[in-house]
């Protein structure tokens, strides 16, 4: 029978228990990994099997920050736990079982010695890796990566908007993250996304956006920056991939992202001396989630005389914006029309061009509006 551990581990220093890890595991906010010790002693090979059996793997140190976290975990223990590392008996070099880089500068004093081919971790000063005979009985030391955010799939064929956020927001995100958020919107739509608030460690932590399910440079839409006032981006198609990466040091409150699907509706443009413009499907009900832009241009020196003679939309939520320019912005906005008491409405453009933008939400739809225009 394998004897039970004859000592108690000290409290997990610097760790907080959260829902990030399964029951019995403890989350470390520096490494963004879950850790647990075995309640029994094992040989090296048995410790590897034990960690695999509980859904983890033997701890292989992947960074100096992780080494420091392990020191905090083990600096008052009597027995040193196994690490997922051993010596290649042919080359005599040590390697990590998980394939990560083996840091040869992490050995404790007078190590590596010839006193074995397996590795334990010494937390007490001087801390570091120590060679141990593989048949010795030591605690198993296991870790697993929690599902903080990776493989998050958002939206769907009938979802038009949503929000998501960095892990830990609005308190603090974690180090060593590589999060992917794949947004899917309905067919024949594109995705707009805005980040606010947005507070990260600039230059070292990053949020990048990509077309489709990609992270390649050719599909790169843009990078969000704490220093850039522009926090809004859009895709060409109905799939966008958002990647959030953090390094090993310094975190902040993080970010909140709001995304919206918009129909791919080409601009309707008219020229000449007169014309008619209507909402989509008029006189039948317009569709939900419409966002249609209209532009009118006449000869230089002339003006556009627009008259809306029929108008019915869902009050406040479905509306028609009138602009005194061919572009649409708050500075060129003349009026926002909505509800059932609009018509008749008349507008004369100050110059030889104007534009309109019709927007509907996902709830009630009505017949919309009808407008005629002439030159004056």
Automatic annotation (TrEMBL):
Gene3D superfamilies assigned to the protein according to its UniProt record, in alphabetical order: Mannose-Binding Protein A, subunit A, Spermadhesin, CUB domain
Q: Which residues form the CUB domain?
A: 149-262, 264-376
Q: Which InterPro entries match?
A: C-type_lectin-like, C-type_lectin-like/link_sf, CTDL_fold, CUB_dom, Sperma_CUB_dom_sf
Q: Check the UniProt entry and state the signal peptide residues, or none.
A: 1-18
The UniProt keywords, alphabetically, are:
Disulfide bond, Repeat, Signal
Q: Which domain of life is it from?
A: Eukaryota
> Taking every annotated instance into account, which residue ranges of this chain make up the domain C-type lectin?
30-143
- Pfam families reported for this sequence: CUB, Lectin_C
The name this protein goes by in its record = C-type LECtin
């Amino acid at each position: 029978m394998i004897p039970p551990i004859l000592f108690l581990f000290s409290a997990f220093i610097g760790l907080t228990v959260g829902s990030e890890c399964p029951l019995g595991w403890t989350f470390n906010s520096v490494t963004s990994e879950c850790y647990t010790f075995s309640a029994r002693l094992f040989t090296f090979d048995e410790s590897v099997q034990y960690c695999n059996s509980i859904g983890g793997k033997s701890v292989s140190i992947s960074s100096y920050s992780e080494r420091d976290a392990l020191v905090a975990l083990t600096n008052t223990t009597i027995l040193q736990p196994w690490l997922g590392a051993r010596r290649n008996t042919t080359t005599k070099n040590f390697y990590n079982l998980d394939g990560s880089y083996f840091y040869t500068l992490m050995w404790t004093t007078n190590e590596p010695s010839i006193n074995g081919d397996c590795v334990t971790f010494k937390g007490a000063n001087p801390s570091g890796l120590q060679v141990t005979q593989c048949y010795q009985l030591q605690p198993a030391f296991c870790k697993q990566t929690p599902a903080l955010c990776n493989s998050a799939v958002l939206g769907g064929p009938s979802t038009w908007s949503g929000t998501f956020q960095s892990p830990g927001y609005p308190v603090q995100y974690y180090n060593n993250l590589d999060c992917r958020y794949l947004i899917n919107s309905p067919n024949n739509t594109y995705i707009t996304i805005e980040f606010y608030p947005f507070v990260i460690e600039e230059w070292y932590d990053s949020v990048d956006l990509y077309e489709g399910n990609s992270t390649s440079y050719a599909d790169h839409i843009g990078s969000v920056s704490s220093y850039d006032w522009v926090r809004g981006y859009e895709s060409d198609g109905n799939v966008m991939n958002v990647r959030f990466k953090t390094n090993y040091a310094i975190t902040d409150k993080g970010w909140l992202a709001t995304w919206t699907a918009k129909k791919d509706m080409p601009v309707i443009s008219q020229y000449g001396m007169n014309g008619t413009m209507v909402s989509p499907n008029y006189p039948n009900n317009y569709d939900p989630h419409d966002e249609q832009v209209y532009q009118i241009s006449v000869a230089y020196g002339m003006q556009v005389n627009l008259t809306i003679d029929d108008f019915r939309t869902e009050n406040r939520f479905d509306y028609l914006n009138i602009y005194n320019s061919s572009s649409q912005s708050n500075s060129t906005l003349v009026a926002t029309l909505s509800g059932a008491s609009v018509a008749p409405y008349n507008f004369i453009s100050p110059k030889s061009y104007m534009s309109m933008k019709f927007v509907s939400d996902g709830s009630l739809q009505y017949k919309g509006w009808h407008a005629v225009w002439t030159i004056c």
